[in-house]
Design goal:
CATH superfamily: Beta-grasp domain
Structural class: alpha+beta
Strand order of the largest sheet: 2-1-5-3-4
Order of helices and strands: HEHEHEEE
Number of domains: 1
Shape: globular
Helix content: 25-40%
Largest sheet: 5 strands, mixed
């Protein structure tokens, strides 16, 4: 990705938390988004970039700008996406 594209705001930052961070071996990933990008399409791109997360596919939740998001939610340039694994409490 060119610096011009990154500066133009066509990117999102994907943040990985807890066990998802361990599986991805990073805490964040920056990627470009298409105008019609949805949570579902971004989820598939996350799994392509970080195959170790695919085994968590059914359990991972995605949040867009601090709100849990359904698969059909649109992901806009400049958004912050959180990848959240299941958590146990007690």
């Amino acid at each position: 990705m060119s610096d011009a594209r990154a500066a133009s705001g066509e990117t999102v930052v994907v943040l990985f938390f807890a066990a998802a961070r361990d599986a991805a071996q990073t805490s964040e990933w920056r990627t470009t988004v298409r105008a019609d990008e949805t949570v579902a399409s971004l989820r598939e791109r996350v799994f392509e970039a970080f195959p170790a997360l695919k085994s968590w596919a059914r359990a991972l939740r995605f949040a867009v700008d601090g709100e849990y998001a359904k698969d059909d939610a649109i992901v806009r340039a400049g958004s912050e996406i959180a990848v959240i694994p299941p958590v146990a409490g007690g």
